Amino acid sequence: MLMSARARSRSRLRKNPSLSSDKCTKCCRVDGDVWLAPEEVTNIVNYLRNENDEDVTSIDTFRKKYVRAELSPEDGDPSQSWMCLKRNDGACTFLDPLGQCGIYDVRPVQCSTYPFWPSLLEDPEAWEEESVLPDDVALENGTDDRHWSPEHGGCEGIIGIGRIMDTVAELDEKDLKDVDLNILVQELEQQEAIIVEREEIIAKRKAAKRHWKRFPGHDIKMSTWYL
How confident is the model at residue 202 (pLDDT cuts 50, 70, 90)? Predict the structure, then answer.
């Protein structure tokens, strides 16, 4: 079997977890839940009020417009509830008609740390499974590569750094002698993506892990919601 782009991404993860990200919003259209911690709810409410969302004047009005489920603490204090966002036509309720995040500056930890979740970074097979090819790249016969889908999700950026290595690998030895690899990397980065630094990846992994551990819904964490 040919080595798939996803398999190559797994081997690279062991050496260096840096990868590219084109800031696409396909993850906003995956079938799944986005849970907000209490302080995230407050931050988003304040942001929407500053952005003149006339329907949001308090946490109660935010709850009515944007929330489909809620987990309250044992003492019943509603200000400490975790809230699950509604979905509109299969997408996050905050994905606007232009395909942009309407609360990007205060987006949830779950969103800002993807795909650098512990469940993906700490499991090479899960990392490989999460990597997908861009829609305009044909799937090769004999590989397990796939495209993004709402049902199975996936991140195109995971494979992005691999394109640099693949480009070098495809060059003849004669041509390689005449190539300035620093310039090649810069050109490919400009064309395709931004390189995410290792330190940033580690910080996001830690943030996602802390966030997930705080979530009070044990059964949900063990079945349908993980970071």
Answer: confident
As a whole number of angstroms, the distance between CA 100 and CA 108 comes to: 15
Report CA 187 to chain centroid distance, whole Å.
25
Instruction: For 56-65, write each residue's pLDDT tens digit.
Output: 999 999 999 9
SS3 for the chain is CCCCHHHHHHHHHHHCCCCEECCCCHHHHCCCCCEECHHHHHHHHHHHHHCCCCCCCCHHHHHHHHEEEEECCCCCCHHHCEEEECEECCEECCECCCCCECCHHHCCHHHHCCCCCHHHHCCHHHHHHHECECCCCCCCCCCCCCECECCCECECHHHHHHHHHHHHHHCCHHHHCCCCHHHHHHHHHHHHCEECCHHHHHHHHHHHHHHHHHCCCHHHHHHCCCC
pTM over 0.70: yes
